[in-house]
Amino acid sequence: MELFTNQVLAGIATGAIYACMALAVVMIYQAIDHLNFAQGEMAMFSTFISWQLMQWGVPYWWSFLLTLAISFAGGILIERLLFKPLAKAPVLTNVAGFIALFAIVNSVAGLTWDFTIKQYPTPFGSSPFLGSQLISTHQVGMIGVTLLMLIGLYLFFQFTRIGLAMRAAAALPESARLVGVNTSWMIALGWGMASAIGAVAGILIAPVVFLEPNMMGGVLVYGFAAAVLGGLSSPLGAVMGGFLVGVFENLAGTYIPGVGNELKLPIALALIITVLVFKPAGLFGRAIVKRV
Amino acid sequence: MSVAAEDTVTEAPAVEAVPKRAMTLGTGTSLVILAALLVTPVFVKNFVVFQMTMVMIYGIAVLALNILTGGSGQFSLGQSAFYALGAYTSAVLMENANMNYALTLPIAGLVSFGAGYLFGKPALRLSGIYLALATFALAVAMPQLLKLHFLEHWTGGVQGLTVMKPDAPFGLPIGQDKWLYYFTLAISVAIYVGSVNLLRSRSGRALMSIRDNEIAASAMGVDVAQYKTLAFGVSAGITGIAGGLSAIVVAFVAPDSYTINLAIALFLGMVVGGVGWLPGSFVGAAFIIFVPNIAESISKGLSGAVFGVLLFIVIFLVPHGARQVAIVAQQMLGKLKN
Fold first, then answer.
1. Which residue on chain B is closest to A190 by alpha carbon?
2. Residue A115's domain spans which residues?
3. What does pTM read for this prediction?
4. d(C-alpha B30, C-alpha B26), whole Å
5. I need a surface site. Which of A64, A168, A274, B73 has the fewest CB within 10 A?
6. Per the domain annotation, does A260 fall within a domain?
7. Are B141 and A269 within 8 A, CB to CB?
């Protein structure tokens, strides 16, 4: 029983990361109807920026905030320069754009900071939490930071004018434009926020998986799985999906014989396909009705 | 992020339509290129011959993706998985069953066709971006599947498998590399001609009608689900043959040769060569083989950035890839003649 509780708690902790990635994916999907295949690489790059800031002597939390700001600006910049001109292009062109971004970011990170793995500090320490053997303080920190961020986002989207405008721009762009919402900038804002959320995910997972240019590959696939499970049209679903996928991953790794670390990615693949086949709208998403 | 009752009118096609005639080269041009390919190995070094062989192999793989995307309008970011499957099928049959290398290729094709067909079954319910997602996950997961413990006896696990490079048959007086070059050339020509004919056939027209407007296609009696799955299977099968060829020519297979980067490279080859333009596949393949070599010689790890930047340049400046360049060149030639 203790093993079970342990695995569930650990699953929730990694699930928090998947929730962040899924949320970032969904934010951009809501804004432009495309999946950002470079989301993981962008998060990795942000993490490297924060690492570099710390190398230069900036304290942890300042580097954290600075990285969020830089990532936010970077996300907006990428949207304005590269993806705004592609808004009306066919899906293929957009997928190609994301793939190109993926390759560039990965390669530039490797060139700048080379491909050796690096230690990344945690501000929470890694001692057992409250003397229990079940979960470490860093894992509690991961869950805590994620929850704080989610609450902040919820308040932002529900109670601010600009949050309302962003929701309007995502749901009914034409109508939003008619009532004076600048939908183009709302999309850019969505990109900035997605990029910053990804940065949080990267910074939180870096002490666990170590810092290197390919660190987010697996995490992104799990983020996609979480987003699909929760429903690509639902931010709340994405978050729930993240936690569910995290727990599922850990339990499958523990209890299904033959599934160790080596099968983690195939499990995510199986999960994505199962959900897409049986419930393409996800658990919380709405089915898309199209008029012909 | 609230609920919209109903959105979108008619969905725009995922891929821009390519007129059927624009998909191939004229007979004259094709024969000239074929003749050039036949005589080149006599004049160049063995390493260049090897590289040209690899261009043809990647060309076949890009061609397979082109049939899927340019023909039926579906995407795949998971071609590396089928390529790996073909390569491993060939390698395992050659090493463990002592099978003749040429005979392993049809089997590699069939196995990959089967896998692609089965993967396509659920995938046909998905459109555009979801299919890209599922295949992306497949490509990321594939190296781990190849490293599986209980398959290690056959696949060699992380170490991979080394296979024997075949000699020229009937005591022909040419080296291994040259023989494999002609062997690959023959298969490439066969696959190219077969693909051209496929796209010109009734099935090809059915695929293109699905690409341009799925609803109209089904209204005209095209079995959309069947054709989409078949397109996926055929594409996977041809990719598998390319993979099998690569196992024979490189004489080595290992899980980490078939990562997402290979899938990205093949995708890039298609975009650079021009989506839906079959000869462009080989231009794209040359691009993905030679550009990284040049980039890596400048700085290690640079090839990804060069790939990405060039991809953006293609997207923004020459969205039809090599096809566009070829058309412009043709027009300029026409002007010179007058």
1. B1
2. 2-215
3. 0.83
4. 6
5. A274
6. no
7. yes
